[in-house]
Design brief:
Chain A: Residues 62-135 form the Cytochrome c-type protein NrfB-like domain. Chain A: Keywords: Signal. The complex is a heterodimer of chains A (159) and B (225). With 159 residues, chain A is mainly alpha-helical. Helix content of chain A is 41%, strand content 0%. Chain A has two domains: 1-31; 32-143, no CATH class. Chain A is elongated. The N and C termini of chain A lie far apart (74 Å). Chain B has 225 residues and is α+β, with helices and mostly antiparallel strands. Chain B has two domains: 1-34; 39-216, Alpha-Beta Plaits (2-Layer Sandwich). In chain B, the strands form four sheets. A three-stranded mixed sheet of chain B has the order 8-1-9, covered by helices on one side. A two-stranded antiparallel ribbon of chain B has the order 2-3. A two-stranded antiparallel sheet of chain B has the order 4-5. Chain B is globular, with a radius of gyration of 23 Å. The chains are: A mainly alpha (159), B alpha+beta (225).
Chain lengths: 159, 225
């Protein structure tokens, strides 16, 4: 094979490599290291982490929050489930988040964390797998309304 | 002679009594037909959750520019030790004084008490921006509106919602119904019923401004659902 042909093949191979790499970059959300976790072999559909915890610099894996695999998928197991249907009291269950997020610091930054710490699960307001956590979007009074409303939200004429 | 005098006195007294009764009756009737009100508000600090839905609605409804506010909720706390903590919330807005210092000091008559509603109001066309009212207000709630350059403050939405027959924006927006608005001259109004039901207080009552923003003092401890 002539030297020129080799050059062409090498060039083509490089192009293919580059293009596949950039594609992976564009599809960053699902390509985050956490989504290459062994768990994803089964949990493709329900578990993809698109939220801020997918940030590769955090070096998080599913087990960091959900706990070690242990018995799973057999039951009973020690996996943590972030659902409102669990019976664990809030103070114990929220420790999963408080291992990184200091509970008192959260209260200093956003006052409403304080009194809800022993009444609500963090995930009662925050949604962690979705791309944009609804609790961090827009007017916070809408979030309060979900529990505190005696009267429904009224359409406010904004101009 | 005596009889004539007696009859005269009797007749005169009857006439005076009849006339005054008639006048009294007439005044009462007149009051109802002209629809005079004395609007007031009650903030139940036990129900308030400090969500600021009221101040957001106020800003949107009355086109209050950013940087100034007609209404805000002042938060104090947290009280207690983590996680057993709670806050107190207090409404900061015009207290709608019946003896309003801001009205007394206004040199142009821009600040006045609307005789029909009892609401302390600012006529922005008459206001020259001298800020006497801002200095005189014992509650520090007045400000110069950066758009109109006139003094501004809460007027119970007199020029927005109230004009359209709706309740003030904050009252409508409150998710926990912590605000009650109504006519304290109307014995059947919700606010009179609420005022009669529980002890209330007003800010700086002792300085004699007779504010019409009533408050229910929050108990220690958080909100229970």
């Amino acid at each position: 094979m002539s030297r020129n042909t080799w050059r062409t093949v090498l060039g083509a191979a490089t192009l293919v490599c580059l293009s596949s790499f950039s594609q992976a970059n564009a599809d960053n959300d699902t390509a985050a290291p956490i989504n290459q976790d062994a768990c994803m072999k089964c949990h493709k559909r329900n578990g993809t982490m698109l939220g801020i915890h997918a940030n590769p610099q955090l070096h998080l894996s599913c087990q960091n929050c959900h706990g070690e695999k242990g018995n799973h998928p057999r039951k009973p197991n020690d996996l943590r489930v972030f659902s409102d249907e669990i019976t664990t009291d809030a103070m114990t269950a929220n420790q999963a988040c408080w291992q990184c997020h200091d509970a008192k610091e959260l209260g200093d930054k956003a006052w409403f964390h304080n009194m809800h710490a022993d009444k609500l699960y963090c995930w009662s307001c925050h949604k962690l797998h979705v791309k944009d956590d609804p609790a961090l979007q827009g007017a916070s009074s809408l979030q309060c309304r979900q529990c505190h409303a005696e009267q429904p939200a009224q359409e406010v004429n904004r101009g | 002679m005596d009889n004539v005098r007696r009859q005269f006195i009797k007749g005169g007294t009857a006439l005076v009594a009849a006339t005054s009764l008639y006048l009294l009756h007439d005044a009462g009737a007149k009051d109802q037909t002209t629809g005079q009100h004395r609007y007031a508000m009650l903030h139940d600090e036990n129900k308030c959750i400090g969500c600021n839905a009221c101040s957001e609605a106020c800003r949107a409804t009355n086109q209050v520019p950013d940087g100034v506010a007609r209404l805000r909720i002042e938060r104090t706390g947290p009280y207690g030790e983590f996680p057993d903590q709670y806050y107190h919330f207090s409404r900061v807005s015009c207290q709608q004084c019946e003896q309003a210092p801001c009205v007394n000091v206004c040199p142009t008559g821009a600040s006045y008490i609307d005789p029909e509603t009892g609401i302390v109001t600012v006529n922005s066309w008459k206001c020259v921006g001298c800020q006497y009212c801002i200095a005189a207000c014992p509650y520090h709630i007045r400000f110069i509106n950066p758009v109109t350059h006139a003094a501004d403050k809460c007027d119970f939405c007199r020029e927005s919602n109230l004009r359209e027959g709706k309740s003030p924006a904050c009252v409508a927006a409150c998710p926990t119904k912590a605000l009650t608005f109504g006519d304290i001259d109307d014995p059947n109004s919700a606010i009179v019923a609420a005022l009669n039901q529980q002890p209330v207080y007003r800010a700086k009552e002792d300085i004699g401004t007779h504010p019409k923003l009533f408050r229910i003092r929050a108990k220690a401890g958080g909100i229970t659902l």
